């Protein structure tokens, strides 16, 4: 029980990587606030909500409908953690959206939408979480960036998405400098190709395209990323600050 008694807010907790992190945190003893704009998963194969999975496992969690582009909604979510559990130890910024298109193709509205969720969402949630996490003896902020934010895209044109995830990696380093002295370890995880609602695998061609980019014989799953978040959130991560932890099946080196 590496997170026994600690309280975590996980944004984007209904689907994909956020869902897997929330479920693992609960199994490690954390109290969860599951923050997402919708409670049901975007992945059709997920028959149960994240809340139902955690409760069936005997864990402790509540769901709070959250729009990370709305500051009042974010503030209410952080207050829910205080009301339910009396404090806050961990924030995981996992809410995110993707977008296709080069800089010639992407509209300003689409560019702004991606930055609003992926970058400003991290800022808003962290802004309202930090004053409470400061009171924790094991404060952690974990931002979900992407290997694309370090290297760029593969064979797809994702200008807005890549720019947003590069910004999250840079913001993470600055937040580590700003809040490390307060006892808050701030780090990012950069997942590689992971099957999810954002990256569905519906055909053999989809699967092969992802396999061609990694060194593993299997397509990464959200559950392959969750243990990295547990490490960063636990006592084992107390000496890790400002790091971008790549969990990508060898995508960067290939």
TrEMBL record:
Q: Which domain of life is it from?
A: Archaea
Q: Entry's CDD domains?
A: SDR_c
Question: By its UniProt entry, which SUPFAM superfamilies does this protein fall under?
Answer: NAD(P)-binding Rossmann-fold domains
Q: Which residues form the Ketoreductase domain?
A: 6-192
Which terms in the Gene Ontology molecular function aspect does this entry carry?
oxidoreductase activity, acting on the CH-OH group of donors, NAD or NADP as acceptor
Q: Which InterPro entries match?
A: KR_dom (IPR057326), NAD(P)-bd_dom_sf (IPR036291), SDR_fam (IPR002347)
Q: Which family does it belong to?
A: Belongs to the short-chain dehydrogenases/reductases (SDR) family.
NCBIfam families found in the cross-reference section? PRK07231.1
Q: What's the protein name?
A: 3-oxoacyl-[acyl-carrier protein] reductase
């Amino acid at each position: 029980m590496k997170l026994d008694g600690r309280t975590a807010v996980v944004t984007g907790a209904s689907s994909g990587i956020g869902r897997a992190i929330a479920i693992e945190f609960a199994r490690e003893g954390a109290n969860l606030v599951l923050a997402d704009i919708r409670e049901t998963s975007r992945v059709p194969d997920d028959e149960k909500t994240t809340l139902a999975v955690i409760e069936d496992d005997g864990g402790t969690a509540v769901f709070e409908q959250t729009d990370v582009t709305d500051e009042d909604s974010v503030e209410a979510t952080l207050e829910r953690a205080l009301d339910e559990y009396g404090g806050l130890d961990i924030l995981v910024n996992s809410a995110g959206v993707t977008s296709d298109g080069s800089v010639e193709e992407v509209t300003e509205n689409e560019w702004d939408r991606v930055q609003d969720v992926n970058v400003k969402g991290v800022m808003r949630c962290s802004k309202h979480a930090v004053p409470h996490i400061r009171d924790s003896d094991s404060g952690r902020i974990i931002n979900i960036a992407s290997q694309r934010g370090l290297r760029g895209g593969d064979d797809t044109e994702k200008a807005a998405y890549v720019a947003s995830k590069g910004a999250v990696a840079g913001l993470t380093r600055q937040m580590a400098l700003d809040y490390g002295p307060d006892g808050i370890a701030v780090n990012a995880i950069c997942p590689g190709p992971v099957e999810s609602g954002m990256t569905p695998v519906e055909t053999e061609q989809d699967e092969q395209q992802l396999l061609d980019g990694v060194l593993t014989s299997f397509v990464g799953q959200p559950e392959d990323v969750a243990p990295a978040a547990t490490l960063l959130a636990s006592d084992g991560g107390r000496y890790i600050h400002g790091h971008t932890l790549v969990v990508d099946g060898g995508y960067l080196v290939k």
